[in-house]
Amino acid sequence: MTPLDETDKRLLAILQAEGRLPIQELAARAGLSTSPCWRRVRKLEESGVIRGYAALVDARAVGLLTRAYVHVSLVDHSEETIRRFDAFVAQEPQIVECASVTGADDYLLKVVARDPEALEHFLMHRILRLGIVRASTTHFVLGQKKETTVLPLD
Known about the structure:
Elements: H1 6-17, H2 23-30, H3 34-46, E1 66-74, H4 79-91, E2 95-100, E3 107-113, H5 116-127, E4 133-140
Antiparallel strand pairs: 1-3, 1-4, 2-3
């Protein structure tokens, strides 16, 4: 873990909310001059605290109207089965999040699709056809109450 001082936290809070700010404006908002601000941001990038920058795309605006959380249990926990499932997840763009979890299931996936039928097709013809999934449970998202990429820094 990289130790963060209050200035680093201020910079990260600003960048999490507005990642496209010019360095001059970022420096002014953080109470720094441009050169020290640039050096601090570069250090945060090089240390891996800042992993990258991305545009946040609204799924509904691009026609992905269906979201679901899919709980997955594998047939076994062999190295080969886990490797195959992890490789499958890595190459599937419809899976936008994947976590290995404790409890009755092995994984929790967040999946997006055009509509419920497309989601069903993905589940039946992609995930379950792998032959390594023992069971899955799908929970459709009815409404999103909170969605953020901003992490608390205190």
